[in-house]
Design brief:
about 65% helix; 2 domains; globular
Length: about 280
């Protein structure tokens, strides 16, 4: 398994974010330099700004903020999917801590980062991203960076600049805590940090996962579905044990991106039954 289903979904939601961001900014720049002063007819709406350049400037800020808000929501989605059945974490204590974090993305990121020893630079930049988003998007919010994140921004400034193509972080903590506008460079770097965080976490989770346990949980859940007439179970029980090998191999690939289950896994999974409580 090279990627969790959670990461596959994250990439669908947010994979081309920087490309879309640059496209949006190029469009605004072109509009600013053009003679256009009204909306094209195809939009069927009025657009008559009193000051076009001011509208473009405010729209540019709005676009940058929106992309960062989407970044946090995408991370939240990814973290939530990891902790659902079939559970990629396979750790009752960790799942319990995550459940205790409630809806706080920052708490969940910290729990995952501490447990899986995520790179301190990545963790610090994700802390900046979420803190900034909370202070901008939530009225009366007063979120502060973790002390460790502040230390990392200071002590690892040169490493951050090297990894993120010249990103200057000297004023990033203050911007995050005040909710001040971020530059394109800062925005693009935080988007990249979101991708780095998801990639690193995903790789560490898959490095310790028990594939047999994961596959059996996934198949057991499918067998116990209520829709037995047309669902997974109807197909599964209609096949011979040998035929189930191919069916399960294709199903695990299509549903979870697991392309190479071993013969041992397929053998055990092909002999599974429904739970009596689900009948």
């Amino acid at each position: 398994m090279k990627k969790t289903l959670a990461r596959i979904q994250f990439k669908k939601h947010f994979g081309q974010a920087n490309h879309h961001l640059i496209t949006s900014l190029v469009a605004l720049h072109t509009l600013e330099k053009s003679s256009v002063i009204q909306a094209p007819g195809v939009l069927r709406t009025a657009w008559t700004p009193k000051d076009k350049n001011a509208s473009v400037m405010r729209s540019r800020i709005f676009v940058l903020q929106s992309f960062l808000g989407w970044a946090v929501d995408s991370i939240d989605m990814y973290l939530g999917l990891l902790n659902r059945k079939p559970n990629y974490l396979q750790d009752i204590s960790l799942s319990s801590k995550l459940d205790g974090a409630g809806r706080s993305v920052l708490k969940k990121v910290t729990i995952y980062s501490d447990h899986y020893k995520i790179n301190e630079i990545t963790h610090a930049l994700i802390d900046v991203l979420i803190t900034w988003r909370n202070n901008v998007f939530h009225e009366l919010a007063d979120n502060k960076l973790r002390p460790d994140s502040r230390k990392t921004l200071v002590n690892k400034a040169s490493d951050i600049a090297e990894t993120y193509r010249g990103l200057e972080v000297s004023g990033l903590a203050e911007k995050a805590e005040k909710g001040d506008s971020l530059t394109f460079k800062e925005t693009a770097s935080l988007i990249n940090a979101a991708h780095h965080f998801v990639q690193e976490l995903d790789e560490k989770i898959l490095a310790v996962i028990d594939p047999m346990k994961f596959c059996k949980e996934a198949i057991q859940d499918a067998l116990d579905e209520k829709d037995q007439a047309t669902g997974f179970a109807a197909k599964y029980f209609g096949l011979t044990t040998e035929q189930r090998f191919r069916f399960l191999r294709n199903w695990l690939m299509n549903e979870y991106g697991y392309a190479e289950p071993t013969e041992t896994i397929l053998d055990e999974c092909s002999q599974m039954k429904r739970n009596t409580s689900a009948v």
